[in-house]
Design brief:
Helices cover about 50% and strands about 10% of the residues. The protein is of the alpha/beta class. The protein binds manganese (II) ion (MN).
């Protein structure tokens, strides 16, 4: 069987969701560097995402942040129509219960019942927005946690989080999936309420059958074996999706595979290994969670999508029958070489052929650079917003 016969249908099905916040001005906690072409409102974010989808053919949906993308006066169905005009659809709905002053001591785990209630109401409103725009995913990340030993009763917080997630799950339509994201630290520096995949899968199980775990590749301690977590979650039918990015130190938001492409390859290898073992895969929401401070945002997204496709294609080329045989012989060298061989295969030609078969540009980054989109957006937006941008992702 030709490699293209194996790969092309898999690439057809491999869709990656873009984050609306990845197209707006953002920075580090030390400052923000503005880009003339950065999107200043939801219409521009969706237009930029539409440009990435037009050139890659693989990013039909855009994740949105409720506070940043749905202003009070904005009708949710208008945003859905806006997305359609730009050739994309609204993807995961991300409630925002970490920004308002009332959440200083937590949102769903705040000891004040009124604040917990307000946070749950906001998430329920997000479910409603999701219904209106036809979103299949409610994506939950909580900044909740504590900074000092003794600050709070961690088990009370565990119970409050479980209660909140159960209540939200009960309000979700049947076709909506709740994604529970975890992160070991930041902003909380002593104990984060959902700190790792064990806690996330506990809360997902408690919430209900349509709750799964979201793995953000930047949300682990150094040297954590992320692919092993992914393999376990798949085997437990608890993997819901990913937030893709890369990092060298903490949650760095670097472009996928820029630091450690082999790690992302190993994650895809475990996913395809699950397909090999189980005969099928559950739905997996592949999403990008990167907001770029220095790289041009659309270019960074195209680069990420291209890298994800390359690493995914390489993982699909692993000869799983040969691997099982060499594993049975305890032939460690050969088993590792089977993985390394697939990883080292240059799939760029195959990927270009796949794109041509879809009437897409063989090199989407070059096509973007030639399109003049960035220059036009920069001129228009600079005129509209001045040198201080359109207000960042908020
Ligand atoms: Mn994330």
């Amino acid at each position: 069987m030709a490699q293209s016969d194996i790969l092309f249908p898999l690439l057809d099905a491999f869709k990656i969701e873009l984050p609306s916040w990845g197209f707006a001005d953002t920075g580090t906690r030390f400052g923000k560097f503005f880009q003339d072409a950065a999107a200043g409102n939801i219409d521009e974010k969706l237009a930029d995402a539409g440009q990435v989808h037009k050139l890659t053919g693989s990013c039909p949906t855009v994740a949105v942040h409720v506070l940043w993308d749905f202003k009070k006066e904005q009708n949710a169905s208008e945003v859905a129509a806006m997305a359609k005009r730009h050739g994309v659809a609204i993807g995961a709905i991300n409630p925002n219960v970490f920004q308002d002053q009332e959440y200083k001591w937590g949102s769903i785990t705040n000891r004040a019942e009124a604040i917990r209630h307000a946070a749950i109401e906001h998430i329920l409103d997000s479910v409603k927005i999701g219904r209106t725009v036809g979103s299949q995913y409610l994506s939950l990340w909580f900044a909740d946690g504590i900074n000092y030993p003794g600050q709070s009763d961690i088990i009370a917080r565990k119970h409050w989080a479980a209660e909140a997630l159960k209540q939200v799950h009960g309000a979700m339509p049947q076709d909506m999936t709740m994604l529970v994201e975890y992160k070991p630290f930041e902003p909380a520096f002593y104990a984060t309420d959902i700190a790792d995949w064990g806690m996330a899968s506990h809360f997902a199980r408690v919430a209900g059958p349509r709750a799964k775990v979201l793995v953000d590749t930047g949300h682990h301690y150094q040297s954590t074996n992320i692919e092993q977590i992914v393999a376990w979650l798949l085997d437990e039918n608890m993997l819901g999706g990913f937030h893709f990015n890369d990092r060298k130190y903490a949650d760095d938001d670097l472009t996928l595979g820029s630091i450690d492409p082999y790690q992302i390859f190993r994650i895809f290898h475990e996913i395809e290994n699950h397909r090999f073992r189980a005969g099928q895969l559950p739905p997996i929401a592949y999403m990008v969670d990167q907001s770029h401070n220095l790289k041009p945002k659309i270019e960074a997204m195209i680069q990420t999508v291209d890298m994800a496709q390359q690493l995914y294609a390489k993982a699909c080329l692993v000869d799983r029958k040969a691997l099982a045989e060499s594993q049975a012989r305890e032939d460690l060298v050969q088993s590792e070489n089977i993985l390394r061989g697939a990883f080292l295969t240059d799939v760029r030609g195959l990927l270009a052929d796949w794109r041509k078969s879809k009437n897409l540009p063989a090199d989407p980054l070059a096509a973007h650079r030639q399109s003049g989109y960035e220059k036009k957006a920069a001129a228009e937006r600079r005129k509209k917003y001045g040198s201080k941008g359109g207000g960042g992702y908020a």
